[in-house]
Design goal:
Blueprint lengths: L8 H15 L3 E6 L4 E4 L1 H7 L3 H4 L15 H10 L4 E9 L5 E12 L5 E10 L1 H19 L3 E6 L4 E4 L1 H7 L3 H4 L15 H10 L4 E9 L5 E12 L5 E10 L1 H46 L5 H29 L8 E4 H11 L1 H7 L2 E4 L4 E4 L1 H17 L8 E9 L2 E8 L31 H11 L4 E5 L5 E8 L1
Parallel strand pairs: 12-14
Antiparallel strand pairs: 1-2, 1-5, 3-4, 4-5, 6-7, 6-10, 8-9, 9-10, 11-13, 14-15, 15-17, 16-17
């Protein structure tokens, strides 16, 4: 006769409870009142690194760092009194020695008569949370100590955060600003900017260095530069924006003053140069006429002086011409254009054709790009740099010049390399100064303005120019033009 095993509800309940304990994400441990571990779930294994077999029967103090051993007697004392310890934040040690931040909840375990016989401990790893809190505090400190106003807003334009520099810049306290529309900072004639900015942010775009005007609480208008980035939630959806605002009022004022001063200086140089040209032409003409008509009346010394007079007037004429070219670089009336650098180089080489032929120079170049700039500026760069490479050639070799270009990030980097006399390291920077020369006009004629013109041109396009060179080892002049 088959016997049917009686259904025991308590057994099923214990099995269910055991399954819940083992499937918990938290470490669940029990111990008796002398601190010996009596149970150890799967999450305890993952958290502390000990297997169940390694842990059960061991003192729970094996998990406690030496400097925190005094915590255990205090916890046990509270458990004996029937107290529960909630969310006790502390540090424990894993099997591998690593220290981890944990939150403990410890409850007394009672026998059927209600006597406390042990403790049940739930341990949750809070290391990631602690690190996140630390990072958050650090970021908060950085934001609050920033010299720039840092503001966040949601996608309807409502301000959600406001740092100390925002208070200083705009005059509103944090309490006054948060919850208000960001449009309170925007002058009426610029209100159309905000919808356009929000539209770009919704598309996940970032707005970099947007220069505009904003209004302080007292009504003062400020020139500011804005960098605005989208804020995304965990699903990658744009939910707001972070805005960094920098006051550029003083910088704009200084820039305006510099522009005015440069315009005045350029106008003066232009006018002065034009006014000097006519008397210099007269000096050249009449010194040449004297030489032609009366040279037989002059002795050798007088003829020598006439030669110095003519030569000096010619040098001054060249100097004025180059000075005019230098001041003309700053004129912005002509717009940039799409140009073929190959065609511009060919044109510059045609101008230098007689010099190239006379020196037996070999000029080669790689395919060059199309780029946006004024044609005359690139022409001047090629003419000056190639002309210098021919002028400062080595005495025992024909000039070999190569022009190349590579694209690097958002700029084109041009190079003009030669096999000439080279430049000593101390002078690599100074040669770009106005009227800076390393040789006398008898050794190498010129005005000392050519490289200054090159530098001024390159700076017009937010680029830079430099040289890599050593004495008697040739030079490579490099310059960048933003693409």
């Amino acid at each position: 006769m088959n016997e049917t095993k009686a259904f025991d509800p308590s057994t099923k309940a214990l099995e269910l409870l055991s399954a819940i304990v083992d499937s918990s994400d938290d470490a669940i441990i029990s111990k008796n009142l002398d601190g010996t571990i009596t149970s150890w779930n799967k999450s305890a294994e993952r958290l502390f690194g000990y297997t169940e077999a390694e842990a059960i029967g061991q003192p729970v103090s094996m998990l406690i760092p030496k400097d925190r051993l005094d915590e255990e007697p205090k916890i046990i004392a509270r458990i004996r009194q029937g107290d529960r310890v909630d969310h006790f934040e502390t540090i424990r040690r894993r099997k591998d020695g690593k220290l981890i931040d944990i939150s403990l909840t410890i409850s007394p375990v009672r026998d059927p008569e209600g006597n406390v016989i042990g403790a049940s401990k739930i341990a949750r790893d809070t290391s990631a949370l602690k690190q996140a809190e630390k990072t958050s505090r650090l970021l908060s400190a950085i934001v609050d100590s920033s010299d720039d106003a840092i503001i966040s807003k949601n996608l309807d334009g409502t301000i959600t955060s406001w740092n100390k520099s925002a208070e200083r810049l705009f005059g509103y306290t944090e309490a006054e600003a948060i919850g208000q529309p960001v449009s309170m900072l925007i002058p009426k004639d610029r209100l159309e900017e905000e919808p356009k900015i929000l539209s770009r942010l919704r598309n996940g775009e970032r707005v970099d260095h947007f220069e505009t005007v904003r209004r302080r609480k007292d009504g003062t208008l400020l020139n500011i530069s804005l960098t605005i980035s989208p804020i995304k939630n965990s699903n990658g959806i744009v939910v707001g924006a972070s805005k960094i605002a920098r006051d550029i009022t003083e910088r704009k004022r200084i820039d305006d003053e510099i522009r005015r001063a440069n315009r005045d200086l350029e106008q003066f140089a232009f006018s002065a140069s034009h006014d000097l040209q006519e008397p210099l032409r007269n000096v050249k003409i009449y010194s040449e006429l004297l030489n032609q008509r009366f040279r037989h009346h002059f002795d050798g010394e007088a003829l020598e002086y006439l030669g110095y007079l003519y030569e000096g007037a010619t040098r001054m004429e060249n100097l004025i011409r180059d000075l005019l070219a230098y001041t003309a670089v700053g004129e912005v009336s002509a717009a940039v254009e799409e140009i073929d650098a190959n065609a511009v180089l060919t044109s510059a080489l045609k101008t230098l054709d007689s010099v190239v032929a006379a020196s037996a120079a070999e000029v080669t170049f790689d395919p060059l790009p199309h780029l946006s700039m004024r044609r005359v500026h690139l022409y001047q760069l090629f003419q000056n740099l190639i002309g210098n490479a021919i002028k400062y050639r080595a005495k025992d070799a024909s000039p070999k010049i190569h022009i190349a270009c590579v694209q690097k990030n958002d700029a084109y980097e041009f190079s003009v390399s030669d096999n000439g006399i080279g430049i000593a390291p101390p002078y690599r920077e100074t040669i770009f100064g106005l009227f800076k020369r390393l040789h006398t006009t008898q050794e190498y004629p010129g005005t000392g303005i050519g490289l200054a013109i090159c530098q001024r041109i390159v700076e017009q396009y937010n680029g830079r120019i430099w040289v890599e060179s050593e004495l008697n080892k040739g030079s490579i002049f490099r310059f960048t033009i933003r693409s």
